[in-house]
């Protein structure tokens, strides 16, 4: 019997070995694929076991975390959610993340390897680093001025520091409270549905994700092309332009809203916003020159990231001369995000060098030690420095004596350009009122803020809507707020 | 009877009259270690979940310690030559089981299982002491072979008359208590098998017709055992308790093989098993679905219904990795139903890792090995078969349930010995350890000179 007992014991040993080998299979060799199975909730649970790192504006957190004591423990909260929603985006336990919450998710959730004290530290210790912080470039005063200026009307504001590319304000209106969709309860679900169904699209970030026909504000780009190409050497020399002007190769007459555009100089055309002069200059520069200038300002670039992606602003590359004429005054297929038009203004203000726009000043670990710092770097040389100086004068003239008088700030050099863009079938849609501008306080050698404002105002009289009326005051308030807080 | 036979032939004077070491001190040290480990685990859970040592940690340790020490005292008194590893392994596994159940209780505040488990453990230790004290010689049990058989059958048949719980009719519910009589039945069956096989093993081995190369036993000897086996398996199929069915069958085969040494038994057994498995798997939807789950653990995820229990169990083991998440830091509660009973091992795997799980398997393996060792050392066939039988119960049960929750074999509902929530199971396991203590004591005590042996008895 002893022999059989020994054999039976070998059988038991085989069972033990089978169990151990199978354990190694499940727990070591197949562990990664099991861990990453989308139906495995552990990754989701781990993500919310600690408070998410905060997003800072002027050094103060505009986000927070709430301990729900549920399975997904910490839930995102937002201070002044609607005001900063176009900056932060949302971090929802159900619907994922957007904008900065999305772009800097690794830092905020603590999974970024840069947050660990040593390489592979997190893997070895199975620990999670506390969430890092993201300090934005946003200027709270400018942001608030833009938000209250829009006052719930559909529109957007983007403000830049022309010398660095820092985004000082990024507002989209109407906005929403991302805190309402942060959790997992039924209120979250209904809030999400409501926000997605709303015709005003409150979750659309109009400042970087919506393109509008830029209208007359695009004339700055056309003027830069005319000056850079040498087509115009003296901005005060009259151009031989009839008013109205017949679009090339068509019988369509292009008219002006403004008076005194017949044979107007480039300076006069910018000051009072002459369609005819600028359309004709665009055609004279030619398709190639217009496209290359527009691209130097950032048009047609789908890769702009702040770090969230910015929608591509469009300037067509294949057009006949009449289409080019309309495109040169910001109509036809030309479209731009508000951030793109702020970049146009900033390039002029910064002497022709367009700095890369960015929203993140620096990221830190949970204790405030810097992980990464976003340096200022040039995006492109948008135009010759001389051209920039000439355009600065023209834009200043438009604010002092032309269409942009609503943007004047006492004792501050302000340059601007109005725009009114029609859209919709037969141009029946509510027009977009545009204003782009920059401001330079007397003691500063260089402009400290550049702004683009777009407002859609259905309640206003259509003929009354112009960039000068609706948008310029908002731009002025934003610039003033930025200058005041910079001076402090 | 190879070596044992020769040893039996040696006359008593050849055995030197040295004092046989009792090794009770070793046992005591190991018990203290087992209790300390359990208390450490209990504290680790509290610190991980609430940031503080549970207020009743000392009480828990004291309770477990007193139970273990009383059991140790009973061994000192009545089984002084017993194997010193058996009781500490039981204490450690039982203590660890309480820790795991307590840890899962923290996730289900309205459904606390640990207090009841502690009461059952106390009852289990009480029965352990009763067996060690009352059963002075394991050979006494041989007298009750047929009584055991009848009792085992009764215990298995009873639940059929009670309502099914979660698809299986294996429970007796009386008042607030629920008992799983099949758990007790397996020990009784082992006693019956051991006794019957010990009495008839020669007849079983050497008689009967020969078909091809297989020597068949005579029907006279074989019929009773086959009938008994058919009844028990039939009853289990009716109760849809596949795990216990598999366990009984495996037990039957192992004991039959050890008793007769005939490979033909294994062949017949495997044929019967394969036939039964195909038959039941095809006809019985409850069993069929278990097989489908085993073959395709992630089918429900692909179907958009979320992960099933087995998938959740595999996720838990995978999350454990090499070193585990740490006690209290895992999420095995996602398994949901039966997380404290059938799936308790997943919590051990997730929170203690492959290292901890291996340690647990090694503890079980040691328990089995000690049983086999006692079986090898004994001289009487009944004792040998009984030792092998109850040790094999542990081995098979661990394999069936651990293999099931880890996707090695189809999942069948069973309790992980000592670890899982379940009163009948923990009580039965203490009885098993008590029987092993008794047998190992006999195995060593037989080395004593005759006069000392008389004194021992």
UniProtKB/TrEMBL annotation, chain A:
Species annotation: Streptomyces sp. NBC_00119
GO MF annotation: an example: peptidoglycan L,D-transpeptidase activity
Protein name (record): Penicillin-binding transpeptidase domain-containing protein
GO cellular component: plasma membrane
Limits of the Penicillin binding protein A dimerisation domain: 52-134
PANTHER family: PENICILLIN-BINDING PROTEIN 4B (PTHR30627:SF24), PEPTIDOGLYCAN D,D-TRANSPEPTIDASE (PTHR30627)
Penicillin-binding protein transpeptidase domain span: 155-480
GO BP, sorted A to Z: cell wall organization
InterPro entries named among the record's database cross-references: Beta-lactam/transpept, Beta-lactam/transpept-like, PBPA_dimer, PCN-bd_Tpept
UniProtKB/TrEMBL annotation, chain B:
Keywords attached to this entry: Cell shape, Membrane, Transmembrane, Transmembrane helix
GO cellular component, one term: cell division site
GO MF: lipid-linked peptidoglycan transporter activity
Pfam families associated with the record: FTSW_RODA_SPOVE (PF01098)
Family annotation (InterPro entries): FtsW/RodA
Transmembrane segments: 28-48, 60-78, 85-104, 116-135, 144-164, 184-200, 221-238, 244-260, 265-283, 352-372, 384-409, 415-437
Places the protein is found: Membrane
Gene Ontology biological process: cell division; regulation of cell shape
Domain of life: Bacteria
Primary site of residence: membrane
Membrane-protein topology: Multi-pass membrane protein
UniProt-recorded name of the protein: FtsW/RodA/SpoVE family cell cycle protein
Taxonomic lineage: Bacteria, Bacillati, Actinomycetota, Actinomycetes, Kitasatosporales
